[in-house]
Design brief:
Elements lengths: L7 E6 L6 E5 L2 E4 L21 E11 L2 E2 L8 E8 L6 H5 E2 L8 E2 L1 H4 L5 E9 L10 E7 L3 E2 L8 E11 L4 E10 L2 E2 L7 E5 L20 E3 L2 E4 L2 E2 L1 E7 L18
């Protein structure tokens, strides 16, 4: 895991004064709320709906905070963090037929390949199509990262090419295949996310991931009581400090 050292963006000093102004970048973890990321686990009953498939996922509510991955400053996304669940080799690759038990396809075969993730910066439309629904346009996207080597572990992927993000844009997680990243059975009023699907919210084998910069789609499918286990690290752009005023430089208004 790589460390980031925040350098000084600019300095200013008044002549013959001891006060020095410093404009520094800041590091912000977009999506981090009161509840830290946790490895998803299967519920005691009712199957194991922890697999995110073939979609771009946008966290819209976390610990009651709406759209927690929204940038409040211009900056660059330099890394993202996920915590995938542990998945057995049999679930990943499937099982062969034995006796009267038929062969079972694995997650790789069912969802088009090995588990991969990318981070995506989205620009929301200025108006809502319906309550809670907007069109989102991809403005930047990272390469895909193989997730299987990190199943069961918290992992941070550092971007070789950082992604620009502007104030008001949001960070989503793109999964073109599958990823065990859904924490379920949480408080309905406190957690929820939207998927990049316009129809067929429960049809998980239809490819809906936003993979192309400039593409736009509506995030019509909402899932409550669930959290997508990701955050993104932003380094904000330094804001120029105020320039010292020159004595006497106060021209009269005309």
């Amino acid at each position: 895991m790589r460390r980031f050292f925040l350098g000084t963006g600019a300095t200013c000093a008044a002549v013959l004064a001891v006060i020095v102004c410093v404009a520094s970048a800041a590091q912000i973890e977009l999506g981090a709320t009161a509840t830290p990321l946790a490895k998803p686990v299967c519920p005691a009953t009712g199957g194991c709906p922890i697999i995110l498939t073939e979609a771009t996922a946008l966290e819209v509510l976390s610990d009651g905070t709406p759209y927690p991955t929204t940038a409040v400053h211009n900056g660059r996304v330099v890394a993202f963090t996920v915590w995938p669940a542990s998945v057995s080799a049999a679930d990943v690759n499937g099982t062969a037929a034995t006796g009267t038990t038929p062969a079972q396809p694995g997650l790789n075969a069912t969802y088009g390949g090995a588990s991969e993730v990318a981070i995506t910066v989205l620009k929301p439309s200025s108006t809502k199509v319906a309550p809670g629904e907007r069109v989102y346009t991809v403005v930047a996207e990272s390469p895909l990262f193989k997730l299987q080597p990190y199943f069961g572990h918290l992992v941070q992927f550092v971007l070789d090419q950082t992604l620009p993000i502007a104030k008001g844009e949001v960070v989503a997680l793109t999964v073109p295949t599958w990823a065990p990243l859904l924490s379920v059975d949480l408080t309905k009023s406190q957690f929820g996310w939207r998927a990049s699907r316009t129809t067929g919210c429960l049809n998980y084998t239809v490819q809906a991931a936003q993979l192309t910069v400039g593409s736009s789609t509506m995030y019509k499918c909402f899932f409550d009581a669930t959290r997508v286990a990701y955050t993104a690290t932003e380094i904000t752009l330094p804001v120029p400090p105020p320039q010292p005023r020159t004595k006497g430089a106060n021209p009269k208004k005309k």
